[in-house]
Design brief:
Its main location: membrane. The chain is of the alpha+beta class.
């Protein structure tokens, strides 16, 4: 449903909230005329001179928008109030909403923290009109430089107008998803190498890192999985966003989305297998320890049973003397400590 927002669908599970009206925003602009980059970083007030020209394609980027920025772009581009409301609130589900004069697109840039493998997301909202792309970002979690580099790397495609701009945006985001999946895959492979280590510290590390990677994959899945619907929706011919020459490029993006989605699903299953295998390995180690301890107990029990049954009480060094008591006490303590240290080193206790 258009404009629908559910807390269960957002990538981090938090409630949508509106940006602070006093936040300081920054803007960036570009103007293409007949496929040629004509102006860049021009004042936002000049956009009115170009939005009505069918030969022009405009890009407007607003970072950390305030309430006045939303009012400005809604009036300048004639955007639907529901689409603007969705852009005002953070933590939207990745989606593509269709309106009479424009499209509203919500997606996420993804990065993986190098230390603990936590997935960090940066939300980007985009309004797509017949000759303009307006992107709304929060913070620097979704940088525009890689997207601009893609546009500058294929200037021959700029003649295809707004479809060219949307492709650069999606290609940048999906490549980030793919890199994140690759990073998590490498981390899971490292985790598999620790599964059969005997060190207690490594066993705890496997448990902790398995849980952290599972959380990262769940969060990544919430971002990657809905992108199939987004890209597939843009490929619809009745939307007139993707022209015939741009169809192969969007199809390539869609292929990357499918691969990232399938890869994420397989990694989730793999992490679950690692966690189950870790539990199985610990169970096997416990059985082995119990077998060894039981064997030692049986060996010790035989002479104990024999001497106890016959009540043997033979003289020993220090018999009937105070020194014998202290010697026997010291012997019991030393042997007990030696057994404790031995079992501790073998991780039996």
């Amino acid at each position: 449903m258009i404009g629908e927002r559910r807390a269960a669908d957002v990538p981090d599970g938090s409630r949508p909230r509106e940006r602070d009206a006093g936040a300081v925003s920054s803007t960036r602009t570009r103007l293409y005329r007949n496929g040629n980059l004509e102006r860049e970083n021009f004042p936002v007030r000049d956009i009115s001179d170009y939005v009505g020209d069918p030969e022009c394609t405009v890009w407007l980027d607003v970072c950390d928008p305030a309430s006045a920025d939303f009012d400005m772009i809604a009036e300048e581009f004639g955007l639907h109030s529901l689409a603007v409301e969705d852009a005002r609130h953070e933590h939207q589900r990745p989606k593509l909403d269709t309106y009479r004069t424009h499209l509203f697109l919500s997606a996420y840039a993804v990065t993986v923290e190098p230390d603990d493998g936590a997935v960090t997301t940066g939300e980007v909202s985009a309004f797509v009109t017949s000759n303009a792309l307006i992107t709304v970002r929060r913070g620097e979690a979704c940088p525009v430089e890689p997207m601009v580099e893609r546009w500058d790397g294929a200037p021959e495609l700029a003649v295809h107008g707004v479809g060219f701009l949307v492709h650069g945006l999606l290609d940048c985001l999906v490549d980030g998803h793919f890199s994140a999946v690759q990073d998590l895959d490498d981390r899971i492979e490292e985790l598999e190498d620790l599964l059969f280590e005997d060190s207690p510290g490594e066993i705890q590390a496997v448990q902790r890192r398995s849980f952290e990677l599972r959380k990262s994959l769940v969060r990544l899945r919430r971002v990657v999985l809905p992108m199939r619907e987004v890209v597939n929706g843009l490929l619809r011919r009745d939307l007139h966003v993707v022209g015939e020459p741009m169809q192969p490029y969007f199809q390539d993006v869609y292929d990357h989305v499918l691969r990232a989605t399938e890869w994420t699903e397989s990694l989730r299953d793999l992490v679950t297998t690692v966690m189950e295998t870790n539990l199985t390995v610990q169970g096997n180690r416990m059985n082995l320890i119990m077998k060894k301890v039981t064997s030692w107990a049986a060996i010790i029990a035989v002479p104990t049973a024999v001497t106890g049954y016959y009540g043997q009480n033979v003289p020993y060094p220090g018999f009937n003397a105070h020194s014998g008591f202290w010697i026997s006490t010291a012997l019991v303590v030393v042997l007990s400590v030696a057994l404790y240290v031995t079992f501790r080193r073998r991780d039996w206790i």
